């Protein structure tokens, strides 16, 4: 297999990692989602951050974040998302890219800190924000408000 074919295969892999709602037990359980016709979790999400990718519910923080409201788990009829599996964090770490962040480049901006309910974003003076991973729940609200898309996710 040549290099180009290898990377194309990795890109199109069904095992690609995504950010999932915080109500699942095992990632393998998402295979049951293909049997779901109604996609009730998508409809139930008040923040409208659930998207269906490869017949699975994944989170998209482009416009909002997760409030951990439980509605998607309550709506799930296949038991993939369920309240007993609720986690207090999402399967992603938020990372601030200093090259993209305007606060790291000497411009006053507190957009991410203002929206963070966990007080997980800490500034050194008025600049150089960092995310305290001990406090961060991965809710994604900071991503949706960042004017330069400086907050990136790392799937865990």
Describe the fold and architecture.
- This protein has 156 residues and is α+β, with helices and mostly antiparallel strands.
- The chain has two domains: 3-85, Alpha-Beta Plaits; 92-155, Alpha-Beta Plaits.
- 19% of the residues lie in helices and 17% in strands.
- The protein is built from five helices and six strands.
- It has helices at 3-11, 40-44, 71-75, 111-115, 141-145, and strands at 50-53, 56-59, 92-96, 121-124, 127-131, 151-155.
- The strands form three sheets. It has a two-stranded antiparallel ribbon.
- It is elongated and about 50 Å long.
- InterPro entries: 4Fe4S_Fe-S-bd, 4Fe4S_Fe_S_CS, Fe-S_Ferredoxin.
- Residues 55-86, 127-156 form the 4Fe-4S ferredoxin-type domain.
Keywords:
single chain, 156 residues, alpha+beta, Alpha-Beta Plaits, 2 domains, two-stranded antiparallel sheet, two-stranded antiparallel ribbon, 19% helix
Topology:
Blueprint: H1 3-11, H2 40-44, E1 50-53, E2 56-59, H3 71-75, E3 92-96, H4 111-115, E4 121-124, E5 127-131, H5 141-145, E6 151-155
Antiparallel strand pairs: 1-2, 3-6, 4-5
């Amino acid at each position: 297999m040549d290099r180009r074919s290898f990377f194309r295969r990795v890109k199109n892999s069904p095992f690609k990692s995504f950010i999932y709602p915080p109500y699942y037990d095992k990632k393998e359980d998402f295979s049951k989602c293909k049997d779901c016709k109604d996609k009730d979790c998508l409809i139930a999400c008040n923040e409208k951050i659930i998207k269906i990718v490869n017949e699975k519910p994944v989170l998209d923080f482009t416009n909002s974040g997760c409030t951990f409201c439980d509605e998607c788990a309550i709506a799930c009829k296949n038991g993939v998302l369920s309240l007993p599996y609720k986690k207090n964090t999402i399967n992603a770490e938020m990372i601030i890219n200093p090259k993209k962040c305007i606060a790291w480049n000497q411009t006053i901006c507190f957009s991410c800190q203002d929206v963070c309910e966990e007080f997980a974003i800490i500034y050194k003076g008025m600049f150089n924000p960092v995310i305290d991973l001990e406090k961060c729940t991965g809710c994604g609200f900071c991503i949706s408000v960042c004017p330069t898309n400086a907050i990136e996710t790392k799937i865990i």
